[in-house]
Amino acid sequence: MKNIVIFGPPGSGKGTQSDKIIDEFGLAHISTGDVLRAEIAKETDLGILAKKYIDDGQLVPDDVIIGMLAGKLDELKNTKGVIFDGFPRTTAQAVALKEMLNERETDVAAMISLEVNKEELIDRLLKRGKASGRSDDNLETIEKRINVYHKQTAPVIEFYKMEGTHYPVHGVGSVDDIFSDIAHIISKA
Ligand code: B4P
């Protein structure tokens, strides 16, 4: 299996590039953000809990996310590989993902880290907020999410550097040019 982690701050293009990776490489896709938004729409217990954190720009607790991901992984059998989009977002999640994959005799082949400056992130998310009405795409929550990223999520980069699978990608420019850099990395991974 070829498993890929697509990583980066909020608005860096994880979801955008995941769509292109699916088309090109035929991998399965798990977006923890999409799963949480689906739970919120269905008003499940998990959705009600997650909404409080998401609307406040905070991460949903690790134990909740890790349990949810294990369930999703079990639904995917006989796949060529999985794109993990928005997961891991803490070092504890990175360790849990490695354990879950190792139990299934596989691992992460590449962690693609999209690098985008703060002004560009804010600009993109404010634009998306106008179109999508997402409750977390307003200036106050966006700034909180970026701070949470630097404190809790950026340390995940060190984990994958130690694993030898960290690949930084410049994430500003045309979606196709960025994808071409990503596709090159995945082909060789
Ligand atoms: P996510 O849904 O993962 O959302 P995101 O980080 O905001 O978006 P992404 O980087 O995918 O951006 P996109 O491609 O859409 O998470 C939402 C929340 O869920 C989190 O804040 C957290 O509370 C919770 N959560 C999720 N996973 C969790 C976890 N593992 N642990 C704990 N909590 C978790 O791009 C954004 C915009 O930019 C789009 O409008 C797009 O069109 C545009 N864009 C993309 N590429 C562009 C480019 N090259 N140029 C110009 N615009 C571009």
Question: What are the salient characteristics of this protein?
Answer:
Rossmann fold, globular, binds BIS(adenosine)-5'-tetraphosphate, 189 residues, alpha/beta, 5-stranded parallel β-sheet
Characterise the protein shown here.
The chain has 189 residues and is an alpha/beta fold. The chain has a single domain, classed as Rossmann fold. The chain is 60% helix and 14% strand. The chain is built from nine helices and five strands; from the N terminus they run βαβαααβαβαααβα. A five-stranded parallel beta sheet has the order 2-3-1-4-5, sandwiched between helices. Helix 4 (62-75) runs parallel beside helix 5 (91-103). The longest helix has 15 residues, at 118-132. It is globular. The protein starts with a strand and ends with a helix. The mean pLDDT is 96. BIS(adenosine)-5'-tetraphosphate binds next to helix 1, helix 2, helix 3, helix 6 and helix 9.
CATH C-level class:
Alpha Beta
Instruction: Enumerate how many helices there are, as a single number.
Output: 9
Q: What is the strand arrangement across the widest sheet?
A: 2-3-1-4-5
- How far from one another are the termini? 11 Å
Note the beta-strand portion: 5-15%
List cofactors, ions and other ligands.
BIS(adenosine)-5'-tetraphosphate
CATH architecture: 3-Layer(aba) Sandwich
